[in-house]
Each structure stands twice: as structure tokens, then as C-alpha cells.
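Milestone M4 deliverable, item 7.
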Amino acid sequence: MKTFEQWDIDEVERTFGIRRSDTLSALNHWLAANQEITEQERANIKHLQTNLVHKIDIWNEDELKFKFIAPFVSIVGYDTDRFNAFTQRTLSATVNGVPLSGRVDFVVATGKSKPIQPFFFLHEYKRTRGRENDPLAQLLVEMLAARELNDNKHALYGCYVQGRNWFFVVLDGQEYAESLAYDATKDEVFGMLRLLKEAKAIIENLLDQQ
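Output delivered:
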């Protein structure tokens, strides 16, 4: 059995019959988010961003996660009475007869002690010399496994991080689409926060419909 990080995008598309789309309504709706950002949130983001600008080229993956990604994502507040954020949790499912399993960097799901119904994934990755992992493929395999656990009830949302660049991804049916890169060292960082906030609102809406 291949773990999540052992897949590349060609294998994922061929094995599970998914295809990339340039126009996916669920992604377009997400990218149009206009969530409010408070002055305090702006100040917190600028502080984190200043450190990122000066250190992004020398941080390793753990430092990027600890010093920027984690405090940035925590601004959203994914821990609620209805769902929570989990890190480094094992996710397993069989999709089209193919067993999938691996550790998920970050997932927002129902459940208190363990993720039950996943909605949003964040895959942290900082490209290093000689590294061959395919972050988009790994994110999609995680989402395919989650969709199986969810009985294919709804679209899944995710994001993968390559250094300063964040890419937002939606898997809906047999189609997936991803955004252009959002550069966290630029003003695009505020758009990133709006999208993370919108992901929280989407989760709340999906739960309301159940």
C-alpha cells in the first residue's frame, strides 16, 4: 500500500479517474470570498509576514510551520463546538478498491478526540533540494480518502503550501481545480486569510444542511 506522499499527480488522475478543470464553480465561489478582516487581525498578519519575508529562504519545513503557518491559521479559529482542527492524524480509506493511508498535516473535521467527517485540508510543504514529493497529488489523495469516509456527500476544500506560495484546491465529483499562487510575502496574504475564513463558513453551512 502506498502512503499519501508516494503518489504523483499522473498516478492519482489515472487511478481514480479524476481530472483537472480550469473552471470549477465551487472553487470560483470560494475565491470570490469577501470575509471581513479586523484591524487587529491585520496587525497580527503584518507581524507574522515581516518575519516570513526575512526568514522564508532559511527556514526549514518545521520552522515555516511553527513560525508562520500555525499562528496564521490560528487567526481563523477552527476549533468550535461543531468541528475542530487536527494535526498529524492518520487517515485511512479504500477508494475504488485501492487502500489509502497516511498522516495528514492539518484537517478540519467533526469530532473532538479524532477527526470523523473531514471538510478542509492544509498540506504543508517547503521544497528542498532533492525532494521529490508532489504536494498537489498528496493533497488530492487525502481528499479522496476523506470523501470516501464522508460517503461522497459534498465537495472538499484544501490548500497546499510551497514556501511563500499558497494554492487553494477544490475536489468536486470527478473534477478538481486549483487557484493561482497566493504569495504570503505580499498583500495577497490578506486574500489568503479571507479564503481560510470562507472555508470555515462553508463548513458551517454544510453542517447546517445535514
